[in-house]
Amino acid sequence: PEEAVGQLLTLGGGQDGMHNHQIIGVVEDSHYVNVKNTVPPMTYVLSAEPKDLSLRWTSIRFKAGASLQGLKDVEQIWLGLAPDLAFKYDWITDLFDSSYRNENQQTDLLNVFTLLATVVTAIGLFGLAAFNTQRRVKEIAVRKILGASTGQLCFMLVNQFSSLVIIANFIALPLAYFLMRDWLDNFIYRINMPYSAFMLSAVFSLVIAYITVMVIAYRAATAKPVDSLHCE
């Protein structure tokens, strides 16, 4: 890129004709399009005579808190320079939002379904833990009479679900990896595979499982043995 400095670049066309411009510097690519696409060539032209540059678009940064009066002032300047061209404008934030509208919608849907899946899983695990604990209520009472502490009983009840959660992670994580890889392949400019996210999701699922089951386990472990062993 440094070799281009000082050379001439011909721009323009149409009614305004062609213009030669000397290259005074080269900057890094800026993403003004969706990162699914390669950044096309961009030329920044400095001139005190916009009418000589086939100027059709310009980017303006307003100060924070600027009012609409600033936009009206820009419109008056535009009409003074190019009265035959209608003044049309877009906010850069709106352009970027529209460029990534599909990705934003996918993210919102994914967040909703993730929340629903977490809630449904927790409810199902809660019901399974309650059913399993009810079947072992007399065993828990006997263990408590024989000296088992509340912590030991809770660990016994909670630990039996760890293998189920671990097996579920071994099934889900590879599927999530391949889906994530295929999705990232759609982007020319992309991040590396976030392996830490997979580890965090596995830890999060274990934490949710432990908290859900612990509610049932603690209730069963602190119950009076006589209530579980009495005969009707």
UniProtKB/TrEMBL annotation:
UniProtKB keywords: Cell membrane, Membrane, Transmembrane, Transmembrane helix
Keyword presence, Ubl conjugation: no
Major localization listed first in the record, in broad terms: membrane
The UniProt record lists the keyword Transcription: no
Localization, UniProt: Cell membrane
InterPro entries: ABC3_permease_C (IPR003838), Macrolide_Exporter_MacB (IPR050250)
Gene Ontology cellular component annotations, sorted alphabetically: plasma membrane
One Pfam match: FtsX
GO molecular function, one term: transmembrane transporter activity
Domain of life: Bacteria
Transmembrane segments: 109-132, 153-177, 197-218
Domain ABC3 transporter permease C-terminal: start-end pairs: 111-225
Listed PANTHER family: ABC-TYPE MACROLIDE FAMILY EXPORT SYSTEM PERMEASE COMPONENT 2, MEMBRANE COMPONENT OF TRANSPORTER-RELATED
Protein name: ABC transporter permease
Natural source organism: Colwellia psychrerythraea
Upper classification of the organism: Bacteria, Pseudomonadati, Pseudomonadota, Gammaproteobacteria, Alteromonadales
